[in-house]
Amino acid sequence: MSFPLLASSGTPPAPPPPTAAIPRPPPSLAQRVHIPPHIYKHPTAILLELCNSMKELHQILPQIIKNGLYNEHLFETKLVSLFTKYGSLNDATKVFDFAKLKNEPMYHTMLKGHTHYSSLDCSLGFYARLRYDNVTPVIYNFNYLLKACADNFDVLKGKQVHAQLILHGFSDSLFAMTSVVNLYAKCGMVGDAYKMFDRMPERDLVCWNTVISGYAQNGMPKRALELVVRMQEEEGGNRPDSVTVVSILPACAAIGSLRVGKSIHGYVFRNGFESLVNVLTALVDMYAKCGSVDIARLVFDRMDSKTVVSLNAMIDGYARNGYYDEALILFRRMLDEGYKPTNVTIMSTLHACGESKNIELGQYVHELVNQLGLGSNVAVVNSLISMYCKCQRVDIAAELFENLKERTLVSWNAMILGYAQNGCVMDALTHFCEMHLQNIKPDSFTMVSVSTALAELSVLRQAKWIHGFSVRTCLDRNVFVATALVDMYAKCGAVHTARKLFDMMDDRHVTTWNAMIDGYGTHGFGKEAVELFEEMRKGHVKPNDITFLCVISACSHSGFVEKGRNYFALMQEEYSLEPSMDHYGAMVDLIGRAGRLSEAWNFIDNMPISPGLNVYGAMLGACKIHKNVDLGEKAADKLFDLDPDDGGYHVLLANMYATASMWKKVAKVRTMMERKGIQKTPGCSLVDLRNEVHTFYSGSTSHPQSEKIYAYLEKLFDRIKAAGYIPDTDSIHDVEDNVQEQLLKSHSEKLAIAFGLLNTSAGTTIHIRKNLRVCGDCHTATKYISLVMKREIIVRDMHRFHHFKDGACSCGDYW
DNA sequence: ATAGGGTTAG
């Protein structure tokens, strides 16, 4: 079934849009005031009629004065009209004040000028003056005033004007009622607008369009589309014109229905609206928002004339569909062709810069913002903040934020998320508290940002608090918030709580499923991850590339090599998803981690694309676990050909050599790091105690309980050694034996565990968050600690979770 | 006719 707009397909092309669609101009001056012909036909009067700009007007002015026409009513009215038209309300006011005869048309022109160039109060003040001068108002005066109220979203003043209008006997006027419908619609009161509309004895096209666009602009796109159907069905029905089309295209974009959109396009085509820029621009926008960037571009390319708005719609269309390069190319072309970018252009472009991490262009746009005088536009600055955060320059973003005079909720949200995504968790949380102190109410966006920060921090107590906060503010029902909460619980070690929340949700996005599947995977619950994925396949939410990344890595963490291979095939065969470099990396990890090193190498050799850093990194990691120096060196050679600046890979290689006691090679890696200026990320562990998060760096003695902790570790080491623990001193070289053990003892993770044991009562589970991967000695030591101390210890490292209990770890010793 | 901030993986 096709959309009813198509109902007219058999009939010949309709005539051009009815004139009712064009805003009705007031009657001409000659109609409303009697003007004697010698004045009306005066050459200067004709010149004034032809006048097209302020510059020309100033050229004509001396003639008017020279010919003594200044005090002629016609000239006064015309001057007031022209001055207001070209934006000089001051000059218009001078002429008006000087005029002897101030009649209604004269007042009307001034009123019109006020509605355009000054505040609503000035316009209303001017109406009061008109009344004071005993001029009888006409319907046009009210239409302008109502429009001014609507544009200022001021219902209260609008209602006062409405009362005046009734007082002067215009309540039955179709025009007046339409203006009132428009007032309510623009002020977000579509319900009231509709009531008024429903009471009208007769309705013209303009009136229908007003109420339709009211619904479209107030988040009720379906109602808007229904009304378009009704307007045609009604007796003596109205045919949608270009204005109707332009108001329902955004509605169509909002419901994302390409089918309805295409039928509207057909209607546009059959009715000859294809020559109208605004219609075509709305079509471009609709196609882009429905995900069809290619069709959007076709329509865009076929436009005879374009405006900035058309370009903005296309740039934004590219950016929102992930075609960042195309967005930036079009933006460059736009500048080359001499268009002046608007705030909308800037915002879409900054979005594209941020997502594609193009900070050079981002900074160029920043300069442009200042040149264009948009530096104090909050929305633009918010976009700048986001762009800098996405490009990992939180410092610049923070500076912009601090200097922002009128921060909005969006500014706070952008900043908090920026901190959260750049590892500045504490800054994110303090800003959240700060906005709380300033009495700014958080919304769902805020909750997502804070949950993201807490997920990173991995602290269950605060996680529960923010969950409670979301419930109390009813924000937990939002899919985005709920998904962020599921992810947060999983990342805080509470997978079962995460699953409970997941089961309670009635609307789930792909990301929700992905977060849960990955949660299971990182905890080593491969079986649960696979089961949930199978459940997902039965439902209506389609798995995406990230889903497969999560499933494959879940298989990898649990040693399900064949299952993982099957899923890798499935994603291509059944879901037509092209594996990315990350997928290949995950596959190498899957095969290699299970010890099938030559098979993993074989897999790399058969890759259809040139293997990236992560692929060789996974291979090297597997070789380190399984102590295969030969293959590890082979992987490292390839890896370092790609010149990584990531310290992690270097450390991995050095550790592999150290495990094999190849000290010269270890030293070589160290030299390479020094030469490249790469520093080893210091190991850092976090532990939460009541309301405080305690941070420990390797070897640090800065914690107030430091002495106690080291003393306790001495005793602890003796106990676990008695239980069978042997310190892994093999991987430490060029220091004496007793120093080796001291070095091992001062690993951040052991400090954090000791602190946790010292400060919690027997039986309490200890949660640790570590920034790097758990080292081999810490892993063994923690297993023994869990045994002798009878404690459950949960350690989250950069990749996954380790649940230590009764001397064993959930990861089965491969990590 | 276009409009700023959002969840997953690495």
Automatic annotation (TrEMBL):
Q: Which residues form a coiled coil?
A: none
Bias (Pro residues) ranges? 12-27
The keyword DNA repair belongs to this UniProt entry's keyword annotation: no
Gene3D superfamilies for this protein: Tetratricopeptide repeat domain
Question: Which Pfam families does the record match to this protein?
Answer: DYW_deaminase (PF14432), E_motif (PF20431), Eplus_motif (PF20430), PPR (PF01535), PPR_2 (PF13041)
Q: What is its main location?
A: plastid
Protein's name in the database: Pentatricopeptide repeat-containing protein
